[in-house]
Design goal:
Strand content: under 5%
Helix content: over 70%
Strand order of the largest sheet: 1-2
Number of strands: 2
Number of domains: 1
Radius of gyration: 23 Å
Distance between the termini: 78 Å
Oligomer: single chain
Structural class: mainly alpha
């Protein structure tokens, strides 16, 4: 079956049954969740994760993809109308979006955000399809040593990039890795770190951990650090006004810049949508014919970051699907959904489950097309959600978390685990550790351990197998480079500081 036949079959699968309703529901929840300050795209996806238990794997991924896409746009609604970013990635959008709202052009700013974001997302999906398939052909030749080296490289890379402190990022990643050792040994069947508890024989529930680290910890943070009240929406009759062809041409350069930046930053593991939106804003101002308008109500200042914010999705999924290395919190949750349905993420996903991958490709295109009609309809509901009192919002979300985590396996320990890891996640956030790195450790932990042990079985215990195979050796070398890079840069900065300090003394 050729590429077009696979893709056509993916569209048929995505649209079968209640597919279109599930996609619309995912987009709608993503927009509402993204519009509520404190519920980021990853948190909205984590809250939707328990509802995927009863779905098949392709439908579950499409639902989460819809939430992801919807949250990208939803975050711009309070940013433009109220100068309150719904998600961290929409912070760049408010620099010009809120000024436009004060000038009475809120509807047009929301329209530019929606249309340009959709354009960027669709282009990124095309690039995703173009890049993932060749990468899949390459990694099919990987053996257990190469897969282990790739998992190790992904772990150190993300952990090093996803926090203010390199060491804390590494510690967070290995904390998640440690959690995967609880329960029955996958090869020998012996019990590990169960402390005599029968409830821990199946290990720590990955979904409960993820919901706890992201959603529950966010609610605890809102309790400890109450946000300022939303107040009145700037535009009492806020709506969406689509830009005409002339206006799209005016922001065309900014849209192109945002698309390129979003793709490049998205493919780089650990950078994320927030970094891409600010980089796109600065680059759009650099290449604009009217840079003096930025910060004073420029539509280009809305188009560029919003396009980059949405284009990250396709770029982010390139290493996620082809290599099993999630580049963001949202991508890590997508991988968790695969694990939930018994599908091992990583290099062999494309060859073992091509129907799943092409259904996801089709679903990504469809959910981004649905963004426009659903975004228009759901805007009013977003404005109502923005006016919820924080205690009502927090209580509702926590109740949803408890019900959702329990309903999956009807196991009372799951909501308890979610609350426990919510406390741990809050502490990690306060002390500068990275929840994203911990999730990465959980996602890659099983893969890394199993492939390491298989490699040693193949080589009869000889560790030289990891350096005698060229691809494996290169990946381990890159891993070592990532680990040593911060120490090298610190030593270089100290050496330069000593040279600067010694220069005046030498002249005197």
């Amino acid at each position: 079956m050729g590429f077009l036949e696979h893709l056509f079959a993916g569209f048929v699968s995505a649209l079968s049954g209640y597919g279109i309703l599930i996609m619309a529901a995912g987009v709608a929840w993503g927009i509402v969740g993204g519009a509520i300050p404190g519920i980021s795209g990853a948190v909205a996806m984590a809250l939707a994760l328990p509802f995927t238990f009863a779905l098949d794997a392709p439908t579950a991924l499409i639902l989460l993809a819809g939430v992801w896409a919807g949250a990208n746009y939803g975050g711009s609604i309070p940013a433009i109308l109220m100068r309150m970013p719904g998600t961290p990635a929409s912070a760049a959008c408010l620099l010009d979006g809120y000024v436009l709202a004060q000038q009475g052009r809120a509807a047009k700013a929301l329209g530019v955000s929606l249309i340009c974001g959709t354009i960027g997302a669709l282009i990124s999906i095309v690039v995703l399809i173009a890049l993932v398939l060749p990468l899949g052909e390459i990694v099919v030749h990987f053996g257990s040593p190469e897969v282990f080296a790739l998992a190790l490289f992904g772990l150190t890379l993300i952990a090093g990039l996803s926090g203010p402190s390199f060491l804390k990022g590494i510690a967070s990643g290995f904390f998640g890795l440690l959690l995967t050792t609880v329960g029955l040994d996958t090869l020998t069947g012996s019990m590990r770190f169960t402390f005599g508890s029968a409830e821990l024989l199946t290990g720590i529930d990955t979904i409960s951990v993820m919901i706890g680290l992201f959603a529950v910890s966010e609610m605890f943070y809102l309790i400890a650090h109450p946000a300022r009240p939303a107040g009145e929406v700037v535009a009492g009759r806020a709506g969406t006004a689509f830009p005409n062809f002339r206006e799209l041409r005016e922001v065309g350069r900014a849209t192109f810049v945002g698309t390129v930046v979003g793709l490049v930053v998205g493919i780089m593991p650990g950078a994320g949508a927030t970094a891409s939106s600010f980089v796109a804003y600065n680059e759009a101002r650099r290449w604009s014919k009217r840079p003096e308008l930025f910060g004073k109500g420029s539509m280009e200042g809305v188009a560029a970051p919003e396009t980059a914010n949405n284009a990250v999705q396709g770029g982010d999924l390139v290493p996620t699907l082809a290599l099993g290395i999630p580049g963001s919190n949202s991508a890590a949750i997508m991988l968790a959904a695969l694990l939930l349905h018994g599908i091992m993420p990583g290099p062999f996903l494309l060859t073992k489950h091509p129907d799943l991958v092409f259904t996801l490709f089709a679903g990504l295109i469809l959910v981004n097309l649905l963004m426009i009609p659903v975004g228009i309809v759901i805007l009013r509901l977003c404005l109502l959600a923005l006016k919820l009192d924080p205690p009502v919002l927090i209580a509702s979300v926590l109740a949803l978390i408890v019900i959702g985590t329990y309903a999956g396996d009807l196991f009372v320990l799951n909501p308890v685990q979610a609350l426990i890891f919510g406390v741990i996640g809050y502490g990690m956030r306060i002390w500068g550790f990275s929840a994203a790195a911990a999730v990465l450790g959980i996602v890659l932990g099983v893969l890394a351990e199993s492939e390491l042990r298989r490699s040693l079985i193949i080589s009869h215990g000889e560790w030289s197998i990891f350096v005698t195979r060229p691809v494996c050796a290169v990946l381990l070398f890159l891993t070592l480079g990532v680990l040593l890079y911060p120490a090298f840069m610190t030593a270089l900065r100290r050496w330069r500081a000593r040279r600067v300090a010694a220069a005046p003394a030498a002249k005197s």
